Amino acid sequence: MKILITLFILVQLSFCASLHISMSANPSRINPILSTDTVSSEISQYIFNSLVTYDENASVKLELAKSYRFLDNRTLLFTLRDDVFWSDGESFNAQDVIFTYETITSPMVFTPYAESFRHVEKVEAIDNLSIKVTYKYPYFAALETWTIGILPYHILKSENSIMTTSFNQKPVGTGAFTLKEFSTSSNFILNANKNYFLGSPKIERIIYHFVPDSATGFLMLKSGELDMGGVTPLQVKRQLDEKFYERFSVYETMSHSYSYVGFNLDLPKFQDARVREALSLAIDRQELIDLLLFGDGVVCTGPFMPRTKAFNPDVKAPKRDIEMAKELLLQAGYNEKNPLKFELVTNSGQRIYIAQILQRQLKDAGVQVSVRVMEWQAFLNTVVQPRRFEAIVMGWQMGLKSDAYPIWHSESTKVGGFNFVGYKNQEVDALIKRAERIVDEEEFNTIYRRIFKLIKDDNPYLFLYIPKTLTAVKKSISPIRPSIIGIEHNIIEWTKDE
Q1: DSSP character for 50?
Q2: What's the pTM value of the predicted model, to 2 decimals?
Q3: Residues spanned by the domain of 52
Q4: Is the residue at 9 inside a domain?
Q5: Does residue 264 share a domain with residue 344?
């Protein structure tokens, strides 16, 4: 009998498909309104749902909402699905949406996602499965506001602080997966939600292996211990052999992020537009792409994502012109006896090499750059957030629906805002506010293409490049459909043959 039971268990386990991937850092809080780091955000999206989300073509589609309609240009009515349950068995309803909105907008909660709700006047429950949202004025991203994950009222209603609640490590969601256990510097296991309203995922378990060292992660991928993982252009071109490609396919998509140099515009040296223009002309963006990415990237020309309608194709990347750069610096009062000097600060990883290449390139124009490298959290907490820097190398994630306010409006220079370089342009401010109230998409995009050009011409950032994302996935996993939103958008459909 014991032998039969053991055989039965082994057979069952053989049909239990697990997806093995790695994470390089510990998640902070598994809470959709507080998750800002990459790992926490990724895990949260598997555990929680939003009223609406994006399909593989980056168009808005329904999720927790069964339908929606605009009653007028300021009022949006959602009808909620009646077949959704939290992973503890409780029914999802309108009170959960009301609670999530009130939590995000509470002055006691510190979340960057609150900015998306600043246009909302009120949110009301019409009945248990109907929500009416009234905006202060017609708002271009009224629907996209509700791509935020919804929290369970019945669990969190009595919590004193959403910032410190144990729920952030023991989340209960409506999503395709549930978290088995939160553990620091260890593996994370997500189990398929058998009662998921869109159908139980065919992958029964996602195992996140805690691998802080990227070299170790790459070796685990090559050996087949991981089922999928990001690879670099160098690895693809020089470190992956035929044996690897027998088991893996490598998918290429355009990243939603760009790398940049940001200036502290409170400093007199960087308030001079001639200095910023000179620095832009003194660097060779294509060389960065060739050296760091082996050509697998494109030059970034401005703040909004290529292939979206807010992107301005008429804005071209500046070509390197050392003589013009020197002339502009001379006009600004800098020469061989009085060279422009500044410190460029960044965190570890590839950005070290960006800083070092820029240091060399700028030296050709007579600019003296010193480089300082810091650990990520120290960099954020002691340099970026308090704005104690001259210039920084960082990256930014571009949204599918462009919203310039969080980075480029002068109001976002406040403490905790993302406009930490201190960019202020009255015309840009006015255009951002004007666009917020426009629901006609073509009119909105026309304004945003103008904003794109104005920001690029001001050079508050030196936009550098947009990398291509290379992801290796075992051939035993299907169906993989790369899209503008990545390759994991249909993960509940994935199967694993081995």
Answers
A1: B
A2: 0.76
A3: 17-227+476-498
A4: no
A5: yes
